[in-house]
Specification:
Two copies of one chain form a homodimer.
Chain A lengths: L1 E5 H11 L14 E6 L3 E7 L3 E8 L5 E4 L1 E6 H10 L4 E7 L3 E5 L3 E6 L18 E4 H11 L14 E7 L2 E7 L3 E8 L8 E6 H10 L6 E6 L3 E6 L2 E6 L18 E6 H11 L10 E7 L2 E8 L3 E8 L1 E2 L6 E5 H9 L5 E6 L6 E4 L6 E5 L6
Helix pairs in contact in A: 5-6
């Protein structure tokens, strides 16, 4: 393998694949990046067996492809070296004895390589009929839901995001059994078969780092044990979580005793301040009470003090509410809502609290109350 | 105590005193901030007994001083509460039973207070004849020297910065016995007696956070066991380290076998890249060799690979050099030099390396070589 390439182009793509390397992996080959130089261009590939990231630099972006070939190099070293080289043309040349030389006019690195045949063989094939969504839309889905997934390995299915696709409707559900986030999006064209998968949250956090802010499409290629995302020059593979996701439909009520409309920023700031006098050992409990057109939010830590916040609200019915919940969960749910005003909906002090945009049913946040009264 | 004050004014000053609180202190009163309201204005004070920070808000900046008095409140809570309150007028009112009420139009906090008589009595008196330096100059001294102090408690005197003041000359020395940084500044007026003190590095790191970029003066009030810095509205006290600082004058050579001039940024970048193939277990050793008008920098980690960097230089004599040193120490020393070109001076492979600005002797960086050849 022998090529020359501009530093800024190579580092842009190394920036993608380096995210597939954990550095903590005990198997050295999984801390490596595979360079695959063909007559079409250069493929870079990394994997820890849980995820795989592949990117492609077309021959038009490469100065010179002198000799095709494959090398496998320590990801952390090659990344830091390229990053610190000056912004000029970099020469990469495979030597005998599993070594590679990386050089510019004044710098010359010789690195030991790994055997390309030891690098995991990855099946990154495409599906005949991928699902297509806008990158922006999918990023939004993730930001609005995955915070509600569980980090307890005791129930693995809850550590991922459930995608349930039927016809044109995609239901994305995340829950840790104390709260639930559900977002619905509509596809442009309908799919033939029902899809019901669970994608690990930690892998979704990685793919989010690769998204740009543009309006490009993502292709979702879904298989029985993996999902492959294709966008821009990138192919991202994630394993799926085995198991059956709980049916959450029955959890979300449709009728409510009480509906209250508040300004989102006022409500957020009041909860945020009241949360200062809550403690994790007490589940960050705060109390909410309505009195006519006023919401009263209060909390206390006995040895420190107490707080009371008042904000005005608009009630749709006369019923007063009195409920307690985790301020942490409430703040996270509120962050996901992108609207001026929100609707808080209640069915009494021991029933789930629902939050949503009054104008839309696309995103629903559910929080279980804490019994204190 | 009862007053009202704009949020942005109070938070600016809380930002200063909060830095005097470690949060890890096991004595609760040392995690507190003392509010002292007099007819002149409001004093805020924090201390962990090692340092103390005091700031003053003049009555002109306070909306209303209704009742003078003193309260002592948990620093972390009062800071977070004021920070999260909206940008309006905040009312603070001492209640009976050691409580304080902090409120705005919609928020109301009641906090438990500590007994002001339990707060450490601090003697922050002024010296008759303080030493005066520009804030910028003093900040520069710290940035150029304290990185070279030791973090090994086995020799306490080396964990601080030595200030030796004689007549008009201030010599600031930092060393961990493997390298040394020395900066000299001149005072505008001379002092009567010789001063030789050691200020703990960790306290200097705290005071640096309080410096602004303006050209204001700092007063240094030096006593036998403490130093008090006064600048802007702030009084900062630091304990001194007991003990005799080693005499380092004899360590810095005045004659050299070899002097080499290089462009600082070229030299820094080359060392920075070569440092990628060094390891802490091997003292981050890199090698430097001169060959006519070329400097060759090299290093290796056997299992990973090796690197060679070349940069052009200007030699003042024919003697070639061949020496090894810690790349970490070299990079830190280079960062302190603010010039286009630097002078590297040598007396053979086992004698100290000296770095300085060719145009000035104010700042000297010394690094001991590592024997490898």
């Amino acid at each position: 393998m022998k090529l020359s390439i501009k530093k800024n182009i190579l580092i842009e793509h190394l920036n993608y694949v380096i995210k597939g390397i954990s550095n903590k992996n005990l198997i050295p080959i999984l801390n490596c990046i595979k360079f695959e130089l063909t007559s079409d261009g250069l493929y870079l590939l990394s994997t820890d067996n849980e995820i795989a990231i592949k990117t492609f630099i077309s021959k038009n972006e490469i100065e010179n492809i002198e000799e095709k070939g494959e090398i496998v190099i320590s990801g952390r070293y090659i990344y830091d070296i390229i990053r610190k080289l000056p912004n000029e043309i970099i020469y990469i040349e495979e030597l005998i004895d599993s070594k590679v030389k990386i050089y510019t006019s004044n710098s010359s690195f010789n690195l030991n390589c790994n055997n390309p045949s030891e690098f995991p063989q990855l099946d990154l094939e495409e599906h005949k009929k991928p699902i297509v969504v806008k990158q922006k839309v999918f990023k939004n889905v993730l930001q609005q839901t995955i915070f509600a997934t569980s980090n307890q390995e005791s129930r693995p299915v809850l550590t991922g995001l459930n995608l349930n696709i039927n016809d044109k409707l995609v239901e994305c559900t995340a829950t840790d059994s104390y709260r639930l986030a559900k977002k619905m999006i509509e596809l442009e064209s309908k799919i033939d078969e029902n899809i019901n998968i669970i994608i690990p949250t930690k892998n979704l956090n990685e793919i989010m780092k690769l998204f740009s802010d543009d309006d490009e499409n993502i292709q979702l290629h879904i298989f029985s044990n993996k999902i492959i995302f294709k966008f821009s020059t990138i192919t991202f593979m994630s394993r799926l979580i085995n198991g059956t996701y709980p049916d959450t439909k029955a959890l979300i009520p449709t009728d409510f005793i009480s509906k209250i409309k508040v300004k989102l920023s006022d409500f957020y700031d009041a909860i945020d301040r009241a949360s200062l006098l809550t403690s994790e050992s007490d589940k960050n409990t705060i109390k909410l009470e309505s009195k006519n057109n006023l919401l009263i939010i209060s909390s206390n830590i006995p040895e420190i003090g107490n707080v009371e916040e008042k904000i005005s609200c608009e009630k749709e019915n006369k019923e007063e509410i009195k409920i307690a919940f985790s301020s942490k969960y409430m703040l996270e749910a509120l962050k996901s809502l992108e609207c001026e005003e929100i609707l808080l909906m209640f069915n009494g002090e021991i029933k789930p609290i629902i939050l949503k945009n009054p104008e839309s049913d696309d995103l629903i946040q559910l929080i279980l109350p804490i019994r204190t009264y």
